[in-house]
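Input.
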Amino acid sequence: MSIADLNAANDDIEAIMADIGARARAAAKQLATIPTKQKDAALLASAMLVRANAGDILEANAKDMEVGRAKNLSAPMMDRLMLDDARIEAIAKGIEDVAGLKDPVGDVMADWEQPSGLNISRVRVPLGVIGVIYESRPNVTADAAVLCLKAGNAAILRGGSESFHSSRAIFECLEEGMAAANLPDGAVQIVPTTDRAAVGEMLKGLDGNLDLIIPRGGRSLVERVQNEARVPVFAHLDGICHVYVDRDADTKMAQEIVVNAKMRRTAICGAAETVLIDKAGADKNLAPVIASLIDAGCEVRGDDASQAADARVKPATDQDYGTEFLDAIISIAVVDDVKDAMHHISEHGSDHTDCIVTDNAETAARFLNEVDSAIVLHNASTQYADGGEFGMGAEIGIATGKFHARGPVGLEQLTSFKYQVRGSGQARP
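Output.
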């Protein structure tokens, strides 16, 4: 069925979404107490089915890629959308990795005795029903579903129209895997329409059946969710990530980190968008860093000092220093010192991920302590801003807020807690 036909067949969006919400709530009540082994069995079966159905997934992805080319999607967007054998294997491996992680549900976070004789425990519990709204990356279908499931939550997935066929093909594998492990119907659902009205219904909360929304995509999507949602939101806005090359940086290390931070994958939220060079080390670091970027195929837009260091540098505008390029483009500027670098980051950054390259432990400690971002690195590429690289398995995204979750949103971040109090007949005087 084409997208147009599907939307025509699903004209009563309000009723469809209400039913999805009710089914998710019923499933969530069961999932909260389902044994770890049963959840893991569902994940392992899903991973096997993703591998077994790789051909069908690739066929579905080819349809999405064809539509993407017809829509003249940018090269970075097409890269996000594209699946191949290696990426499908990575999806399957990611599912298995989550199955291998410790189940957070039931974990005793703290335990103590009161003078009254009461024993009090703070215990992790699922959040309930989580809605995930995402754009072009079809792998998010699997990442979001399995993380929600392992943490005992029901999930409602709404992928972008660009990845509609790919996401459906991946979801069908997950659905079959969950059925094989006898998980409740509605444990993970995918919105069966590309109609934007479905998003509107999710933002209303699906009659109180949605406990949390996680948007993963561009600024317009995230801002809409934040502005309109009637339920809590885990959001990340732009990934305007910086690499600051300190006066005490090793030049070769700086070159390698900067090029990797920008060019490994330009379209991910952890890609560096701005390089800051300490003025006191500019003579040794500025020209080599610029040359390494340009030689790697990156367009460099810089201030006067950067243009003077390399004639190939294009003039930067103020807007460039606050732009998430998601492409082989980077801005560069010379700053007075680490204090000036941190001021630049606070003015132009997005509280996502920032890095310092230096051999000075004191300067590094100051940067790590004072830069108010979700992830701060010392002598390591910003491309490590990833749940898998943090040992969390897959992640739904990088949260840049400060309430409940910050940084990679993995299993623990998809739980809350409650207090269990055990007594022996106490009555309060």
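The longest strand covers residues 119-126.
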